[in-house]
Amino acid sequence: MRRQIPLILTFLTGIAIFIAFFIPHKPFNEVQDILLDWAIIIAGFALLLGIHSLLRKHITHIKKKDGGWGYSLILTFFFVGVFTVGIFSAIQYKGYSLTPGSLLYFVYDYMVIPLSATMFALLAFFIASAAYRAFRARRLNATLLLIAAVVVMLGRVPIMENAFFNFLSRFSDWFMFIPQMAAKRGILIGVALGAFAMSLRIILGIERTYLQ
Amino acid sequence: MKERKGLIIGSVILIIIFIGMLIKGEPSKNIMVWIAAILTLSIYSFLYRDNIFYKFAEHLFVGVSVGYSVSVVYQNAFIRRVFDPLFITRTYIVEGQFHILPFLAVVIPTLIGLLMVSVFTKRQAWLIRIPIAFVVGSYAGMSISPSFQANIFEQTRSTLHIALSISSFIMIFGVITTLVYFFFSKEHKGFLGRTANVGIWFIMIAFGASFGYTVMARISLLIGRMNFLLYDWLGVIK
Asked: Which range of residues forms the domain containing residue A5?
């Protein structure tokens, strides 16, 4: 029973949503909408486990005064602070806390965006050092990788205005639209076939690793 | 010793440049801009090595990001879909009459979701499989049709949009050889092996182009942060 009930539930929800794609009429489309709404609510509860896990780890650090407990204190403080701001804003703006002017919008604008932009910008330096290691033209494959990257980089930001860089810019666009897109399409079709097979395996109960 | 000397010289040069910019420019008077600038510099200090300023900014970033994401999900999942229909708009009461179906449509997923908490008990921990099964089943069902429509039908249709040109030929050839590379049911030997090898070339070109594109995106973010430091904070650029 401990395995059968979840397997039956997976089968029923998967099939109900799948059928609605082929019969987009009442009651199938309504059932699909309701089930997807339910999935959002239920997945929201998984967040509780995530919060519990994060807070337990850092509060234990703080209690034991392990090395770097101060950082755990900062993380916990800002997590609780921003979450409180989020709840306050949601109550104030009746469920639409990201309305411009709300406190959460202020946090998003002045903290989340600049911090994440800086973090990702930091990667520019590491990506350059990774490129140095990956792009050494030792083999044909690495050489192709190097040529493609250089063409795209120089083509996107031409160093000067002349015939060569104009050509490079157009060549870069062609590179992105034809050879790059050809491989991307091949990968996308392969991924979609894999996703389809995996979804069928899950719905039919062949794939059960998520129940462990 | 040499490293420490280099660090001291580097720090002194940076401080001199900073003071020079403060004198020459028009530094911001907004406290939030100063905080953002100090956090930005703290994150960039990682370029030297892992240090307390970076760790402070990193933990602050994680705390703020998680707090923000949790409050957005909490709002989308609970406030709009559970709290609001149950206690504010009361969708289950129409013209003074209680309707069971709209009521159950909110209560059932809430109860199923609450089963997530069963993981904290020893004997009933298996109940967590029910909400997980529901979510996995719905997303599996949901992913079939869009993946077919957007990734298989649409991509194949666009590929087969044949014109008499070299580009069109390269496109079809590239898609087929890439697909052959991902065909693992037969050993890549002989004709299949050679075709798969051409597929690898196309994949390498795609990865290189994507890498170049990503580098440019990161550089663009870096320019944005530098612009913030030099224009918004120090006012050196006008």
From this structure: 1-64
